[in-house]
Amino acid sequence: MKKKPIVFLLIAGLFAASLYPLQTLQKRYSTAFEFEDLKYLPSGAFLKGAALSFDEVAADLLWIKTLGYFGAHAQGDRDYKWLYHLIDITTSLDPFYSDPYEFGGVVLGTELGDIDKSTEILKKGIANVPKNNKRYWYLPFFTAFNYMYYKGDNLTAARYLEIAARYPQSPPHLPLLVSRLYANTDSPGLALPFLEEMLVRADSPKIKRNLQTRINVIRVKQHILVLAAAAKQFKEHTGRNIISLDELVNSGIMTALPVEPFGGQYRLNKEGDIESSSKIESMELYHIKKSKTNKTKPLVFIEEPE
For 138-187, what is each residue's pLDDT tens digit? Predict the structure, then answer.
């Protein structure tokens, strides 16, 4: 039993020796750093085995060093080449500690522009952090942001945001953002099972009202896609465009026109496109334009009306 303190001191000494160069920041206004070489820092798997029952303590020590490393470089050369390595080791030593995952997921994306490493750390957190952690929903939320904003993959983003929205600690408007993401895919109907489940679970009359509106908007989008496909089939058979939607029924392509959920009607506009007569708010996603410095600013979601 007396050997454990000795083992811990040896581990602490190993960290101190490996990470000492991280503390050498020159004068305040200088961007030059002393030589840093962390390639000999052991892997998380090795350290977890060597730390025995002190892995959480070792993770705390390394996490403090990681924050110091980031802070030093943030004030200087902004070169964070070892940041992912440090965060990966920290989260291997203590897989249940949520802060490094959240910090790494944000910083690796925004500061380093390494979206793949950011997403990798976030997914590692999703797999390891206990789901009863009050900030667990941040991990799938930031993962959704990476897929939507940086990769333009709204479908994958919607699936991760759907995970985040299922946790009671998450903001109540997240289901509405899920519906916006799904609405901007080729299969908007994928949002319906999720939104219908959230509608049943919702307590607030306002949220119920907004969810029902989103469900109806998704259904309108679905109906228009079905009608457009039928109109294309009509043209392939007859060689001409439809004059009215009734032709889709009269020709036998459709048995009946879908019922517009807002009480309106589907019709052809002046350009020959199919639309609803109801006034439906846009569910498009908007981004703030990049600044002249080419720094990407955060996504802006349309606010819900009071």
Answer: 999 999 989 988 888 888 998 999 999 989 888 887 887 888 788 778 77
Q: Helix (H, G, I), strand (E, B), or coil: what is residue 210?
A: helix
d(CA 141, CA 127): 14
Are the C-beta atoms of 112 and 83 separated by less than 8 Å? yes
What 3-state DSSP class applies to 165?
Answer: helix
- The DSSP bridge partners found for residue 20 are none
Integer CA distances (angstroms), 221 to 80, 90, 122, in order = 45, 46, 32
Looking up tokens 């496909």, which residue turns up? 229
Tens of pLDDT, residues 59-100: 788 888 888 888 888 888 888 888 998 899 889 888 898 999
Q: Is the pLDDT of residue 24 over 60?
A: no
Give start and end residues of each alpha helix (H) in the chain.
Answer: 3-19, 44-51, 55-74, 83-93, 98-110, 115-128, 138-145, 154-165, 174-183, 191-201, 205-238, 246-250
137, 125 Cβ separation under 8 angstroms = no
Contacts of 272 (CB under 8 A, 6+ apart): 241
Q: Does domain 3-153 have CATH number 2.40.50?
A: no
DSSP state of 33: B
Predicted structure pTM score: 0.59
Interacting residues of 232 by C-beta distance below 8 A, sequence separation 6+: none
